[in-house]
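User: What would this chain look like folded?
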Amino acid sequence: MEDRPIPGISLAATPSGTGCLECLSGDGPGWWLHLRRCAQCGHIGCCDSSPSQHASAHARTVGHPVVRSFEPGEDWFYEHTTKKFFRGPRLPDPQSRPPEQPAPAPADKVPADWRERIHR
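Assistant: Here's the prediction, encoded as structure tokens.
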């Protein structure tokens, strides 16, 4: 059986880094709860529970609708336009942020009251 491309997923795109690109660049408060990886270009952004929600902003502004969790031990995909989770192909390594990197992160930017600041 021949593998067919899945819209919104590139098997060539590597992650942009190990943290939220915008948070690390100074956009927003500079910390995140969990990370999401754009399955089309590899952009790493923060999740919708994080203060800045950069991953979904990337999906809206760039038009890349599919993200994959970038958390250790998670391999699910999410399609923003259909609002559905699904299992997809293995993307280029690394599959997640480094396990020794805390969540939330970066540790020196996370406020003591971070639990009150997340979106639920």
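The domain at 1-94 is CATH 3.30.40.10 (Herpes Virus-1). If you want, I can go into more detail on any region.
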